[in-house]
Prior knowledge:
The longest helix has 36 residues, at 199-234. The chain is globular. It has 639 residues and is mostly helical. The protein has helices spanning 2-8, 25-54, 63-83, 91-109, 113-132, 135-147, 151-180, 199-234, 240-255, 265-271, 282-301, 309-338, 348-364, 367-378, 384-405, 464-468, 471-474, 488-498, 518-532, 555-559, 577-587, 612-635; strands at 481-482, 502-506, 512-517, 591-598, 604-611. Helices cover 59% and strands 5% of the residues. It has 2 domains: 1-85 and 184-409, Clc chloride channel, CATH 1.10.3080; 460-529 and 552-633, CBS-domain, CATH 3.10.580.10. The protein has a 3-stranded mixed sheet. A two-stranded antiparallel ribbon has the order 4-5.
Amino acid sequence: VQEIRDLCWDGIPSRGASWLRELPYENTWEHIILIPTCGGLVVSLLNMLRSALDAPKEENSADSLKAVLKPILKAVAAAVTLGTGNSLGPEGPSVEIGASVAKGVGSLFDRDAQRELSLRAAGSAAGISSGFNAAVAGCFFAVESVLWPSPAESYLSLTNTTSTVILSAVIASVVSEIGLGSEPAFTVPDYDFRSPSELPLYLLLGIFCGLVSLSFSWCTSLMMVVTDKIQKTFAMPKAVFPVVGGFTIGLIALIYPEVLYWGFENVDTLLESRPLVKGLSVDLLLQLIAIKIAATSFCRACGLVGGYYAPSLFIGAATGMVYGKIISFMISQLNPIFHLSGIEVASPQAYGLVGMAATLAGVCQVPLTAVLLLFELTQDYRIVLPLLGAVGLSSWITSRSIKRTDGADYKLLEEIEPRTQQPDTFLCDSNLCASNDPHAVEGPEGSLDELSPVSYSFDGNTEYIAKKLLVSQAMRSRYVTVLMSTMLTEVVALMLEEKQSCAMIVDDNNLLIGLLTLGDIQEFCKLSEERNKIPEVSLSLHYIHVGGWLQEVIVSELCSLNGFCKFPPTVTPKMNLYSAELIMNTHGTTRLPVVSEYAADQRALPVGILDRECINIACRALATRERLVWFSTLNNPRT
């Protein structure tokens, strides 16, 4: 990332992107626009290459090479995304690299599921530890994001995996120090805690950070829906979106250069922790919060590759600085009236540090990691109490709202694939997910309050089960496909034979072009009978008048009417059931075609059908199995 940044932004000092404000626009505007755009173009090409590697083919000796190439290409795409200044972060790819290495090691030496989980936790801990030079935070990240999400597995894993995770985090931190130095990721200003009377102010900051985190999540969902609609409405190739994303970031950077990814120098600028760097006004900080949220969400929606840790820290630092400056101003103004001289308030930088952790915890749902990360970086025990209060409130607000509205939350371990990789995955899994939360997220279309999570787990953990299962584990592999030339009577006969209420319409190359339901056929028959005044026939025959003219009607005639045979939203086998459920809620449907391969014109190869009954059965079965494993563990603790 650093090498690409130095190559692309040659001559720009390493004092953060705010330096661009001091340069005349006529000398820099071309570079500011073209560099992120070119980065998006390279990422688009890399995504297309990764999609080509994912195309299903016969198994051969090259499969292992493909498995190695895909994470490498994604890491390169992330480096290009960040090196050219697009608004994402490096921690998501860093964690994914660690998890990919762990997966490779596990597949080579041992296929035991328990050991694979331990290796994945170790690789994730290494990613965070090396990214921030914070080994303790890396360990807790692995526990929060990998080991704790599974109630059954975490009991078995914590004791056996702790030593592996700690060793991995320490080694990664040591290697990182050797290669990059022992300095923290960003310059940490001195933290000052004046008095316990400040604690309510930190709690209020936690509430604000929780609301900002929710705004971030909702904005990402909205951006996903908007880009998906644009792509489907105008039939734009998905490879265009990373370029559009880079170009948009370049335009925004002309006015707000701080949105560019510039390492953590921009965070240093916000915290005013670098000498000779002018601080930013409250008005500008407020604008940057909104602009950074929108820019990061748009980058993710366009398929650029990166994580949410760095943007979350940036947004949190800006939120804390604004809050701290406003509180200081208000107390100074009210002091002569209410005699508030007894209330001592810390510097805005102190609130900026706490705001970073609170926003990180809210966006990524890793409260312990956020607390320990800031504690490890500041090395000041006094920050722990304000951190715990603000982080706890922020995380509670976002987690409660997510359960209630299915608002987006993101974690690094399930980064949502770029649009060329999973065309109907609105978001994301960052590796939210990217993301650091095992949530693969889809953006709602329409009201964000109308969505409801899948809830099949026995213990009230309503999201875990659906997020752990993949579509490929729940979909029906037997389904009905018909051509445009197929007669409706044959379609209904096939539905009856396969016990299905829908049929996927395909072309001569078996590529999906639409979805036909039994309800569509019934509605078509009703309209036709009314138009031609044909006597109504028995509902048991689904309005198919075998002896009359309806027997000769073919699929294309039905599809020629508006409202029938529309191209449906689709899912891929690698998506999780939580994401599929959100897509169903978004589009108001009860079934989704499952597709695996995309042709040049973005049409899809169907491989199955997923409906709500499939999701229900799969989630209940997994919840039951995990409860049985848990009981077995209690009865046989040594096993």
